[in-house]
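Protocol step 4 of 5: obtain the predicted structure for the target chain.
Materials: sequence only (see below). No template structures provided, no constraints applied. The aim of this step is simply to have a reference model before the mutagenesis design in step 5. Sequence pasted as it appears in the construct record:
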Amino acid sequence: MTQNPYQPPSAGVSDPQLDAGGDGGFLGAPRKREAGAGINWISDAWKLFTANPGMWIVFLILLFGISLVVQFIPLIGGLAQGLLMPILVGGIMMGCDSLRRGGSLEFDHLFAAFKTHAGPLLVVGAIYVVASVVIMIIALAPFLGMVGLSIMTGGGAEQIDPAQLGGFFIGFLIAMLLLVPVMAAYWFAVPLVALNNVPPLEAMKLSFFGCLKNWLAFLIYGLVAMVIAFAASLPLMLGWLVAGPLFMATIYTGYRDIYYEA
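Step 4 output (structure tokens):
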């Protein structure tokens, strides 16, 4: 059988953003879910956890250990942690996708994103860290300036006026409020990059609007998560061996619910 040498290749090349996980259905934009969706994210995450609880607990212990070690790096410990965590979580998101498709959760998943999406996930982490630091500096600068002036004039830190201390708490609350949109932009950015090859800035924009569009579902999710966190903290914090992996898995289940067809 002869073939036209000038004919374009007939092999299909799918858009990676539309064929994540090999099953299609990626919407490319967030959709609004019902208020009770937050509870579904937790119940679906529980199914992912119980599929291989031992490996989930290993992941949690390793993440905690890596984070602890990195924090001891002089000067750049916090920065290094902020850059490293998105890559590790990206690998866990790959593991979640494997479980959903009937596969297994393997140890190699924890480091899988280093091979595939390290650069883009580093960008996501850098944007999150820089934005968080800038917000904290802006919100707390007036109080820190007053403290510094008091110390330089010989008053000492113990001479800080109670009103100044109140200013610190107000600044801290303002910083927390300003950090909410930053956290919203970060929440789903990691799976969008790691599983859909979405560019970092676009992923953070999609994440922000996904959280904004589903604020009520996140409110319900947050309330239930607070109850779980309280219960996990009672038996000598041992419950976090389950709660920690569960909360990580909800990032994936929420992402699937918001950015994929039903």
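Step 4 remarks: Residues 5-21 have pLDDT under 50 and may be disordered. The longest helix spans residues 118-152.
Proceed to step 5.
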